[in-house]
Amino acid sequence: MDYNNKLVLAPMVRVGTLPLRLLAAEYGADITYGEEIIDHKLVKCDRIVNDYLGTIDVVEKGTQSVVFRTCPEEHNRVVFQMGTSDAVRALKAAQLVCNDVAAVDINMGCPRSFSISGGMGAALLSKPETIHDILTTLKRNLNTPVTCKIRLLKTSHDTVELARQIEKTGVSALAVHGRKVPDRPRDPAKWNEIADVVAALSVPVIANGDVFDYEDIQRIKNATGASSIMVARGALWNASVFSPKGKLPWEEVKKEYVRKSILWDNEVKSTKHTLKEMIMHHSCLEFPEGKAVIKSETLVDLA
Ligand code: FMN
Fold it and tell me: Where is the DUS-like FMN-binding domain (predicted)?
């Protein structure tokens, strides 16, 4: 996969399922990440061809819950993001999905206590040997491109050092979220520190943080020197952020999102969560629409 000059939908838990990925791509995203899925969960799953929907489903044994759903239309642009702390388990998990996706990405930025306590996400940032093990094991054994996504370390020097070590493992690209582990989402992303990584590496760096409008894409490109840009909240709130024609009214995007959720039989929890996030940003959950979404139990209720 070519990682230059691309607009990228960021990985987002509960949000980045098939309907949002397809919607973002329709509006102009070139690469679309799925939500992070933990390797422990994946190794308990089966890969099932769903002839009815025309999808490939990764389904948890026993519960039959769909952990990941993809379709041939997105095969060349969907990135499977995994949470892991162990090379052998990561490989076993990745082998289940690697032929159905364009790349496998390892999350090295998640600051939630669940990830950190399991040695995953941002916990990996202070374990360069484990990073090396995981990435080289995946690289050696998969034919699918391998990438990872990091946060900034305490100093720019430390981030660049780690990024150089990651580059040596043979990853196809590195996404850098321009915040440090203790930073909150409202803290401004440090585009200047992403620029230091871009300047030091030959491998494509995907810059991430604080892109909310199409114009911000050029601003972050100028500030970081990165040619590929990743968008999370901007796309959650209005997936048409990727459109060079400018954003569509969010109500229109929301309707299309619900339509796609029904077409692809998206998990209710995911559609509900995503709609709540959209409504909280643009309107208010206390209004009748918000209350109705909160009460909904099925996709039909949500529609
Ligand atoms: N980052 C990951 O690497 N994996 C995830 O699964 C993930 N889930 C997220 C879920 C939500 C709802 C949000 C808002 C962010 C999530 N992130 C995750 C972080 C984003 O990918 C991104 O790095 C961060 O939000 C900064 O980008 P932004 O300023 O465009 O929002």
Answer: 9-261
- Environment class of 219 (CB within 10 Å of its CB; exposed 0-12, middle 13-18, buried 19+): middle
Atom of ligand 1 nearest to the CA of 177: 23
CB 41 within 8 A of CB 67: yes
Is residue 296 assigned to a domain? no
| 12 Cα to the center of ligand 1, angstroms | 5
Tokens of 69: 């759903």
Range of the domain at 95: 7-247
Q: What is the DSSP string of 156-214?
A: HHHHHHHHHHHHHTT-SEEEEEEEETT--TTSPP-HHHHHHHHHH-SS-EEEES---SH
State the complex-level ipTM: 0.99
Q: Would residue 295 count as lying in a domain? A: no
pLDDT in tens, 126-182: 999 999 999 999 999 999 999 999 999 999 999 999 999 999 999 999 999 999 999
Atom of ligand 1 nearest to the CA of 10: 21
